[in-house]
Amino acid sequence: MSIHGYQHGDARLAPSPVSIDDLRLLEQTVLFGDDDRRALAEAADILEPQVEDILDVWYGFVGANPHLLAHFSNGQGEPQPEYLAAVRKRFAQWIRDTCTRPYDQAWLDWQHEIALRHHTAKKNRTDQADSTPIIPLRLMIAFVYPITATMRPFLEKSGKPTEDVERMWQAWFKAVTLTVVLWSAPFAREGEF
User: Fold this and answer.
1) 1 — pLDDT class (breaks 50, 70, 90)
2) What does the alpha-carbon distance between residue 109 and residue 193 come to, in Å, rounded to a whole number?
3) Which of 13, 38, 153, 183 could crosslink 115 through cysteines, CB 3.0-4.6 Å?
4) ∠ CA 89-93-96 to the nearest 5 degrees?
5) Residue 27 is part of which domain span?
6) Looking at the domain assignment, is residue 14 inside a domain?
7) Contact indicator for 14, 113 with CB cutoff of 8 Å
């Protein structure tokens, strides 16, 4: 499957400014460990058939909030369907990657590329979109909650015991937090991240 702009593992990506050692320390900071990796792998099987439904919820949330939709709209405030559709495909793959990819150098470099695409460094370039030049850091941080809270009902559809759902949901929460931390790197002044 080819997804326009999806470049995980591409040797041409700029290396992340975050080292693997620093990534491991960040994982410790959010209490992310091997149990969480296993829980995410288990969640992947549950979430895969529901990815489009998950994205419908998330896109519904963005579409219902003009201050969020603005970052997918042109200078006249009109949403750009092609841009939204292209990002949606990569967002679907991000769900899969978050659950199944090893958090190694290739993953770290790809997270850095995603970060740059939210920042003035590369926003709009992948899809040649005419939209806002940046997604403000405050919105990315605030988005941790809806991206986390809305995932639980999809995990519950598995019919698994509550404690298993909780374990997978907590792992998802930690992984999303870790990802957003990495995505914040371009927003920090040199030496402050």
Assistant:
1) low
2) 16
3) 183
4) 150
5) 20-187
6) no
7) yes
